[in-house]
């Protein structure tokens, strides 16, 4: 494929290798902006997993943990929803998402998940704080716990269902990365804000989530090969390293010190929350970087073509 | 040449009436698959880049007819292409590639096989002796084999220009259409893909979904825009503005099945004339996007023109993605159960 030799010496003009059209990207970069979209990915994961934590805390008689998880997920959902609407080219038309039901569009499915889940988690938090309508509160808490994991995971398909190489090629692991990252964040919030004597489940969720998040990220990058490079380079690379360090510190800290010291638990919780956010920013920027370099689009497709042709002959 | 593409396209095409005559012989007919009863025949573009002169009349005609706003008057500094690529405000884009290639030497068969007076393309039929002249207009002067083909074939530094008018492919399996969360993008009765601008809310999902980088977001407007294949003109039996304006009939509009046959004949002619690099791109209904409603004849690899060599509609993996989402959500819930199943503390 090396055909760079075709270009002669042409001062003033960039050397064209003709593996691409003057080095221009083949696909369009997403027009989604930071912090809106990576922020939403983080908040959705935090909210979704927190609802699981909140329901478990309610069922097992841990009111303080339940309060933290429910209020946290309601606020995260609200903030995430605002970020999504803010990112639209025509924010006033956000309800157009709900004029169809379309399983081929993860964003459409996500809109339905987010709106039903958002209602459930808002009612769950409202009834918990006010003490009104306890039966409605229980139903909402359970509904949010069922929809929450979907909210935390569907975003993997949302990103993967594009032509962006660093996103699409990771479609097998991306939902697991996000679900695990959401668990780590929700556990982190519990460690940060709930009293020690009720934070046991949050600590365990943080350790499980944090471990799985790191493992899923490694597995994803290893399988992707060339298109995993953006996760290592540039801005995305910095976020990836931050996510790894914070995730490792937070997870190990929660396992070791999270039971004994309130301050230690809070610090680990904060590290996990920040690490989870860093994961989303890493994935977001890796996608942008892979879209703007034609190499990540052309080379894997070239290899695919060559493999198909050699299989035929 | 047995078939003259220039003449065929000059007749006024009425896709509506054509549809009544030839309906749905193609099992991959996307309009029928989208629920249209008795849709007109699928139409599209065949862009023969071997006869493109890079005049950009298509870009201008498209802008004029569709009221597409100006999108910056900058010089790219890379070639005579100062448009850059397709975007919300560029629905036709003429790529311009300058290549240093040993003319003739890499294709001695071109000189031998070019029929006298035949339409050879892209300098492949040009004699070796002509190669060092400064930048002639590419390939149009159909060199008779008798005149220069007899010259000894020596590898000499040469230069060729490739020009190609790119456009939305109106894919049979269109990613933009699949992922659009509002239903703003829809399949027309002609099998084309169009954005309903009164529905689009500017979510931008279609933009990274397109494997060709066609659709874009218009700044100051927020919505996604792309080629409509002149939907308004089609409905009254007119051909799209770009095809109408093309002075060399490089852009040919018509019923897709007929265009494919015509393209096959043209490719065979070029191969016979020794232009062995000529290939059809987006013509194959078995490719990753089910074939394009708009396809091209290229004279080099697709990526040289900024096209993906093996595009695949991203939603072909969507079923697997949803399965993974379900598994991941279940795993999260199971993790929650485990978190509470431990010691009470």
Secondary-structure map:
The complex is a heterodimer of chains A (313) and B (345).
Chain A: H1 36-59, H2 63-87, H3 106-130, H4 134-160, H5 165-168, H6 174-193, H7 200-224, H8 234-256, H9 262-292, H10 294-312
Chain B: H1 5-8, H2 15-21, H3 30-33, E1 43-48, H4 57-66, E2 92-102, H5 108-113, H6 145-148, E3 157-167, H7 175-179, E4 185-187, E5 193-195, H8 206-209, E6 216-217, E7 224-225, H9 231-235, H10 241-245, E8 251-255, H11 256-272, E9 279-281, E10 294-298, H12 318-341
Parallel strand pairs in B: 1-10
Antiparallel strand pairs in B: 1-8, 2-3, 4-5, 6-7, 9-10
Query: What overall form of chain B do the CA principal axes indicate?
Result: globular
Task: Note the beta-strand portion of chain B.
Answer: 5-15%
Q: In CATH, what is the class of chain B?
A: Alpha Beta
Oligomer: heterodimer
Overview features:
heterodimer; A: Formate dehydrogenase/DMSO reductase fold; 10 helices; globular; B: 345 residues; alpha+beta; Alpha-Beta Plaits; 4-stranded mixed beta sheet; two-stranded antiparallel ribbon; disordered N terminus
Describe the structure.
- The complex is a heterodimer of chains A (313) and B (345).
- With 313 residues, chain A is mostly helical.
- Chain A has one domain (32-289): Formate dehydrogenase/DMSO reductase fold (Up-down Bundle).
- Chain A is built from ten helices and no strands.
- Chain A is globular and about 70 Å long.
- The radius of gyration of chain B is 23 Å and the shape is globular.
- Mean pLDDT of chain B is 82; it is low at 1-25 and 110-153.
- Chain B has a single domain (5-316), classed as Alpha-Beta Plaits (2-Layer Sandwich), CATH 3.30.70.
- Chain B is α+β, with helices and mostly antiparallel strands and 345 residues long.
- At the A-B interface, helix 1, helix 3, helix 4, helix 6 and helix 7 of A face strand 2, helix 7, helix 8, strand 6 and helix 12 of B.
